[in-house]
Amino acid sequence: MSDTENATASTSRRAQWRAIGAVVLLCALAGAAALAWWGLVLSKRVTTDNAQIANSQIPVMAQVPGTVATVHVADTQRVNKGDVLLELNTVDAQAALDQSRAALVRAISEVVNLRARAAQAQAAVASHEVALENAERDYRARMPLKGSGALAPELLRHASAQVTLARAELLAAKEQAKAAAVLAGASDIALHPLVRTARADHLKAWLALGRTRIHAPLSGTVAQRVVDAGEQVAPGVQLMRIIPASGFWVDANLKETQLRHVRVGQPVTVTLDLYGRSRELPGRVAGISAGTGATFSLLPPQNAAGNWVKVVQRVPVRIELDESAQSDERYPLFVGLSAHVRIDTRDRSGPKLRPVSASGPERTSLDQETVLADRHDQLSASRAAAEFRQTLLEVVGSHAPDAP
C-alpha cells in the first residue's frame, strides 16, 4: 500500500472517531440535560389526568304541600338569585290565612272581654269593701247599747251576722278578682297566651302562603328538573337542582405514591379536555381527602380476604380554582368535565392537612350568605306583624267605651 493510500485511510479513521466522539458527547449532553430537567422540573411536579370539575348541587324542594300551578324554568336555563322557579296553588294557603285572621280577631276580643271582667271584679271588691265598712260601723254603733235594754238582742246579732257576711263576700270577691286578673293576663294584650297562640298560627299561615312561591336560592343553572304543572308535591321532595355559577373546584385522584410532596397551598395548573391546553386554569391545593376513593366506595375492599391483590390506591385531592378562572363566560365550566392537573411541589413548607380555620368550621358558599328563602320568610313575617298591629288597634278600639 502506497503512502498516499495510508494517509487517506488514517484520515478516514480519525474522521470516524471524531464523529463517534461527537455522537457520544451529544448523547452525554442530552442525558445530562434530561437528568437536570428531571431533577429541577419534573421531580417537582405531580400530574394526573384522573380529575374532574365539581361544584355544589343545591337541591330545590317545596316547604309546604300543594299542587304545582306554574313552572317558570327548564333544564339548562340560567337563573339569578331570587328568580321565581315555580308557584303552587294558593287557594288552600289563602283559606288557611283567612281562618287564622278570624281566630286572631276572636282571641283579641276574648282577651279584651277578660280584661273587662277583671275590671268588673275589681270594682266588685271595692263595693264589698264599702259594704263591710258600713256593716262594721253599724255594729260598732249598736255595741254600746248591749245590755241596756234599749236594743233588742236580735238586732245586735243581726248586725254581727252582717259583718261576717260582708267579710265573706269581700273575700270571695277578692278571689274572683285574682282569678279574673290571671285570666286577663299582663297589661299588654299582645303578650296574652291566647293572643300569642293565635298570632303564631297567623304567622304560620302567612309563611305558608309566601312559600307557595319557590325562589332560586342563588344564581346558577337549572339541572334535573323533575316537576311539571299539575303535579302534587310534598315538603322534602327534590324538584330540581341549581348548579351555582361560581365556587367550582377540581377533584384530582392522585396515586398514593404521588402524595409524598403534595402540600396545601401549592400552585396548580388545570387544563380541560373541552378547551385543550390553550385554556389553563390556575388554582391551589385546598386539601387531601381523609381516605382513598376505594374506602369510601359503596362496596369497600376487604383486604383480609385470601384473594387480595395489592394495587396502587388513589386519594382525592381538592383543588380550588381562582375566581378569575370562573368569571370568563367564554369558557364556562360544567360539573364532571375531565381535567388534567399539574401540581408544582417545589414549595413544600405548607401543611400536609388542611388547617382548622380560626373562625370555626368552613362553610359552603351557600351558607356564607343569607339564604333567600329566609328573606322571603322575613317579608312574610313583617306583613304578619303589620296586620297583627292593625287588627289589635281595630279590635281594641271597637271595644272602647264611647266618649260622653
From TrEMBL:
Keywords: Coiled coil, Membrane, Transmembrane, Transmembrane helix. Pfam families: Beta-barrel_AAEA, HH_EMRA. InterPro entries: AaeA-lik-b-barrel (IPR058634), EmrA/FarA_HH (IPR058633), MFP (IPR050739). The chain crosses the membrane at residues 20-40. Residues 104-138 form a coiled coil. Residues 346-368 are annotated as: Disordered. The keyword Zinc does not apply. Residues 92-212 form the Multidrug export protein EmrA/FarA alpha-helical hairpin domain. It is found in: Cell envelope. Residues 248-332 form the p-hydroxybenzoic acid efflux pump subunit AaeA-like beta-barrel domain. PANTHER family: MEMBRANE FUSION SUBUNIT OF EMRAB-TOLC MULTIDRUG EFFLUX PUMP (PTHR30386), MULTIDRUG EXPORT PROTEIN EMRA-RELATED (PTHR30386:SF19). This is HlyD family efflux transporter periplasmic adaptor subunit. It comes from Sinimarinibacterium thermocellulolyticum. The lineage of its organism: Bacteria, Pseudomonadati, Pseudomonadota, Gammaproteobacteria, Nevskiales.
